[in-house]
Amino acid sequence: MRLVSAALVREHVLKLRAAGGTYHSIGQAARTGAMTVHCIANARRPMVQAEVASRLLAVTEADIRSLHPSPGGTMWRLRALVAMGHTCSRMAAATGIPPATLRRIVRGQALTISPESRQAAIALFDAWWDKAPPQRTRREKLAVGNALKRAALNDWPPPAGLDEDDLDQPGYQPQCGWRHARGTGVADDYPFADRKAAS
C-alpha cells in the first residue's frame, strides 16, 4: 500500500466542498468513505493511500453538481409560495428543511440542493400551490402581508405563473412576474401529517 501526501488532495476536497459537496457525496463519487474524506479535509491525515488520492482527485465539481440537483426549480417553487403569502419559517416547519437552508434557497444563494430537500419542496408546492396561509391571528396576518410585499418587491410570480414543463431546467426564468393570488382555500399547517401517519 503506497502512501502519498494529503496536501493536494485536501486542497481538491476543499474545492469540492465549496462547490456544494458533502463529505458523503464526495466519498460516494470517489468510492470511499465519508469519514476518510472528512479526515483528509480537516488535516487529520498527513498521508493518504495513493489509490484513494487518485480517486478523489478524479472527482470534478461537475460530478458533485450532478449528485445534487440544481436548486433553480426549487427556488422558484418556494418563491411562488411566498407570493401566496407563505413565509420561509412556515415552509421550513412544514418540510423539515432547516430554516437557514430554506432562506438561502429562496434568496438564490444555494449552489446545490440535496435530493431530499428538493423532494420535500416539490411535495409542499403540490400541497400548497393553490392555498393561502391561515390568517387566524394578528401575527399571522402580519407575516402574510410581509411575505406578499417581499414577493411583489422582487417580482416573484405565484404558482400559476410558473411553467412546470421548464421549471427544472437550469437557468429557467418565469415569463410572468408578481400577481396577486387568493388561492382556492387555506393551507394546512402540517400538509404531510396524514402521509406520515399512514406510513
Q: How would you sum up this structure, described in words?
A:
By secondary structure, the chain is mostly helical. Helix content is 55%, strand content 5%. It has a two-stranded antiparallel sheet. A two-stranded parallel ribbon has the order 3-4. The longest helix is centred in the C-terminal third of the chain and has 17 residues, at 138-154.
Largest sheet: 2 strands, antiparallel
Tell me the structural class: mainly alpha
Please state the overall shape, judged from the principal axes of the Cα atoms.
elongated
Mean pLDDT: 89
Radius of gyration: 21 Å
Number of helices: 11
Helix percent band: 55-70%
Number of strands: 4
Low-confidence stretches: 195-199
Q: Helix and strand string, N-terminal first?
A: EHHHEHHHHHHEHEH
Q: What is the strand content?
A: 5-15%
Give, in spatial order, the strands making up the sheet with the most strands.
Answer: 1-2
The span between the termini is 47 Å
Question: Topology, pairings included?
Answer:
Layout: E1 3-5, H1 7-18, H2 23-30, H3 34-41, E2 47-49, H4 50-58, H5 61-67, H6 72-83, H7 88-95, H8 99-107, H9 115-128, E3 131-132, H10 138-154, E4 185-186, H11 193-198
Parallel strand pairs: 3-4
Antiparallel strand pairs: 1-2
Helix pairs in contact: 1-4, 2-3, 2-4, 6-9, 6-10, 7-8
